[in-house]
Amino acid sequence: MHTIKIIGLGFALLGLLLFLAPKLSASAGRPIPFAIKLFLPLWLIGALINLWIGVARAGYTVMEEAPIFLVVFGVPAIAGLLILWLTSRIAR
Questions:
Q1: Integer Cα distance of 18 and 12 in angstroms
Q2: What is the pLDDT of residues 66-90, one digit of tens each?
Q3: Is 0.85 surpassed by the pTM of this model?
């Protein structure tokens, strides 16, 4: 259940950045690529924090947490990259 909640947080962060990106002047007319480029490193940090908590506090080994990390990071990251790919194909 914890893993599903963390993945949900990843999707929430992705949605928030996609919502806020058009409002930021830094996106310069390309809000979706800007949001995804911002999301990926932020979510990597978040997923690594989750891995660290699993190792330091929950008592799992890094080897036990590594597959969970891949799922926690990978599912929202793949969704973000898929959004980027689909929107870049439409823009052409």
A1: 10
A2: 999 999 999 999 999 999 999 988 8
A3: yes
Length of the chain: 92
Place of tokens 């891995």: 51
Tokens linked to 34: 């800007």
Residue 92: pLDDT above 70? no
Q: Are 46 and 13 in contact (CB under 8 A)?
A: yes
DSSP class of residue 58 equals S
- Distance separating alpha carbons of residues 53 and 12, to the nearest angstrom: 20
d(CA 50, CA 4): 12
- What percent of the chain is helix, strand and coil (3-state, nearest 5)? 90, 0, 10
Q: Taking residues 50-79, what's their average pLDDT? A: 96
Structure tokens at 30: 């390309």
The CA distance from 92 to 85, in Å, is 11
